[in-house]
Amino acid sequence: MIGDGRNDIEMFQWAKAHGGYAFAMGQAPDEVKLAATAVIAAVSEDGVAQVLASLEGLEFLS
């Protein structure tokens, strides 16, 4: 999950509780960053694109 707003905190908690990852954007408020697994670059720095590029080549189980 990737988010940057306070409304994403509950989603982050759910993702982490179910073995997923929660990425907060660099411009997110501090409480959102604290709820995340990791903080990535801001939107203006292509943070989402960087995360997606890092997943290239991974195989996901369905």
From TrEMBL:
Recall the taxonomic lineage recorded for the source organism: unclassified sequences, metagenomes, ecological metagenomes
InterPro entries, from UniProt?
HAD-like_sf, HAD_sf
What name does the UniProt record give this protein?
Unannotated protein
Q: What Gene Ontology terms describe what this protein does at the molecular function level? A: magnesium ion binding; phosphatase activity
Signal peptide residue numbers: none
Organism this protein belongs to: freshwater metagenome
**GO CC terms:** cytosol
The record's annotation in SUPFAM superfamilies points to: HAD-like
